[in-house]
């Protein structure tokens, strides 16, 4: 069983009460963060045997170093880190979902499931301005529109990241892909337009429920404003996690044996070989083209020679097969190439030496004769 640890100040949404990921704060003063993190990893290894550290990619530089430090200090490769580019509420939800699946999946499988969950979520927020939005690519027009009065934006994160200016003609952005039915929605924030979320966004994603959760402490930092309403929509089907686990073909790592579907093993961090081609791909390949046979002379066959009116081999009865083969081999050898004459222009002329210098040896010139 794997212990799932969410690094950072991301409280649980409470949607999965029986399965809650461990939380560890990384805002310790001075050098207290590293020892506390290593102690937490040691306790988790003693109780579970493996640890999966989930942390935000947009705030993960320090966490990435802590994971490597814990692996080195504890002399273990059973600590894996996975960085997810998700906003706070969505990240907290994914950590709890991984904790629920940790009872049924190995740690290498959980890392692949984390990336798959990120692709199936629909996360974003209503914000009043994108002037200070740093974690999602924003165009210049949207930045300028943030300074106009009465403006609002629908910002999406994850795999469908983008910025959409809310207008009466188009109140919600285009949905590239929505979660599977039934769709559940969680939302929370401060001073945001919850009416837009309930009346415009919820019907667009066909959510059967919208649950208010406590605002995340790092929500304002991520969205770049204090006026926002953050949301995440996900599939509430009982078999949703199982179907995601069965989407990939897992193979054991050639170094540590951990099953994984990623290019690099999340535990030993070794590169995995390319998977073998599927039988369907092999069948779709074109048939092998037959090799073209070259006209190679064979000993004992009639070999025409330029300038000769009769064949060389088989010309007389007193010729033995060995003698015929030797003669053919001599005839087939290429003519020897004469060495090209040296170009006199490329031969350097001898350099005249003055009487006060020693003779030069190679390219190194020694000093004057009268030098001590």
What class do helices, strands and sheet pairing give? alpha/beta
Radius of gyration: 37 Å
Tertiary shape: globular
The tally of strands reads 12
> According to CATH, what is the topology of the domain at 2-115?
Rossmann fold
CATH architecture annotation name of the domain at 2-115: 3-Layer(aba) Sandwich
Distance between the termini: 82 Å
Helix content: 25-40%
What's the CATH C level of the domain at 2-115? Alpha Beta
The fraction of residues assigned to DSSP E strands is 15-25%
User: Which stretches are low in confidence, meaning pLDDT under 50 for 5 or more residues running?
Assistant: 286-317, 356-372
Mean pLDDT: 80
Instruction: Tell me the strand order in the biggest sheet.
Output: 7-6-5-10-8-9
Order of helices and strands: EEHEHEHHEHEEEHEHEHEEHH
Region (Disordered): 334-372
Biased composition (Low complexity): 334-352
């Amino acid at each position: 069983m794997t212990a799932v640890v969410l690094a950072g100040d991301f409280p649980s949404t409470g949607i999965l009460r029986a399965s809650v990921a461990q939380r560890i704060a990384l805002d310790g003063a001075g050098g207290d963060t590293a020892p506390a993190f290593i102690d937490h990893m040691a306790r988790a290894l003693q109780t579970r045997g493996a640890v999966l550290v989930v942390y935000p990619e947009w705030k993960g530089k320090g966490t990435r170093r802590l994971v490597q430090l814990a692996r080195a200090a504890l002399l273990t490769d059973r600590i894996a880190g996975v960085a997810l580019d998700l906003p706070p509420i969505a990240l907290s939800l994914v950590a709890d979902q991984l904790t629920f699946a940790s009872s049924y999946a190995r740690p290498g499988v959980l890392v692949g499931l984390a990336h798959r969950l990120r692709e199936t979520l629909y996360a974003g927020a209503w914000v009043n301005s994108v002037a200070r939005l740093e974690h999602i690519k924003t165009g210049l027009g949207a930045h300028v529109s943030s300074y106009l009065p009465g403006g609002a934006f629908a910002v999406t994160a994850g795999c469908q990241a983008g910025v959409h200016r809310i207008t009466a003609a188009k109140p919600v952005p285009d949905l590239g892909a929505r979660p599977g039915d039934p769709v559940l929605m969680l939302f929370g924030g401060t001073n945001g337009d919850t009416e837009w979320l309930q009346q415009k966004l919820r019907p667009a994603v066909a959510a059967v429920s919208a649950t208010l959760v406590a605002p995340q402490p790092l929500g304002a930092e991520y969205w770049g404003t204090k006026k926002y309403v953050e949301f995440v929509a996900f599939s509430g089907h009982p078999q949703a996690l199982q179907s995601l686990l069965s989407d990939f073909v897992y193979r054991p790592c050639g170094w540590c044996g951990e099953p994984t579907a990623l290019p690099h093993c999340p535990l030993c961090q070794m590169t995995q070989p390319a998977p073998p081609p599927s039988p369907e791909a092999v069948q779709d390949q074109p048939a092998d083209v037959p090799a073209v046979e070259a006209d190679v002379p064979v000993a004992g066959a009639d070999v025409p020679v330029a300038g000769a009116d009769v064949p060389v081999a088989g010309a007389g009865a007193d010729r033995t097969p060995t003698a015929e083969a030797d003669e053919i081999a001599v005839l087939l050898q290429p003519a020897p190439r004469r060495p090209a004459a040296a170009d006199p222009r490329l031969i350097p002329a001898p350099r005249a030496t003055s009487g006060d210098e020693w003779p030069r040896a190679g390219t190194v010139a020694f000093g004057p004769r009268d030098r001590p």
